[in-house]
Amino acid sequence: MAAAAKRLNSPRGLVFDPGSILLFVADYSNSRVIVFDVASIINGENAVNVLGQTPFAASSGATMQNRLRDPVGVGLNTSRGWLFVGDNSNHRVFVQPYSPASRLPRSPSSRPFCLPFPYTRVGKCVVANGS
């Protein structure tokens, strides 16, 4: 099945942000996270954004800073402005800056970064500035 803005292929996790009414879905076999605006839900609705692939029709996984390979789960910290994705086949956590006020992940100039497994600090995620 070809990837598209309204197609999922083996979804493996999701998280909902009630503040922005956005639903983030880990689309495992398309190696991406797609974002739906669920203020009003309709059958066959297109996603409003994609992470880990460009454009929506792409589906090949890659090992690059802004690409995913088989994402398996998503988490969101709206107070700190981070979206976390378990990037299964890249053996890392993909961390995307997130701005709930804009209703979409931050601009491409706010590049994602990745945390390798295993974590060395239990219970605290180590971000770029060390906090």
Number of strands: 9
- In round numbers, the mean pLDDT is 75
Cα Rg: 14 Å
How many helices in DSSP terms? Answer: 0
Share in helix: under 10%
Structural class assignment: mainly beta
Q: Quick one: biggest sheet? A: 5 strands, antiparallel
Proportion of strand residues: 35-45%
Query: CA-to-CA gap between the ends?
Result: 41 Å
* Strand and helix order: EEEEEEEEE
List low-pLDDT spans.
106-111, 116-131
Shape: globular
Task: Please explain how this structure is put together.
Strand 1 and strand 2 (22-27) form a beta hairpin. The N and C termini lie far apart (41 Å). Helices cover 0% and strands 37% of the residues. Strands 5, 6, 7, 8 and 9 form a five-stranded antiparallel sheet that branches. Strands 1-2-3-4 form a four-stranded antiparallel sheet, with no helix packed on it. It has 131 residues and is an all-beta fold. The chain contains no helices and nine strands. It has strands at 11-17, 22-27, 32-37, 49-51, 71-77, 82-87, 92-99, 104-105, 113-116. Mean pLDDT is 75; it is low at 106-111 and 116-131.
List the defining traits of the structure above.
131 residues; mainly beta; 4-stranded antiparallel sheet; 9 strands; globular; disordered C terminus
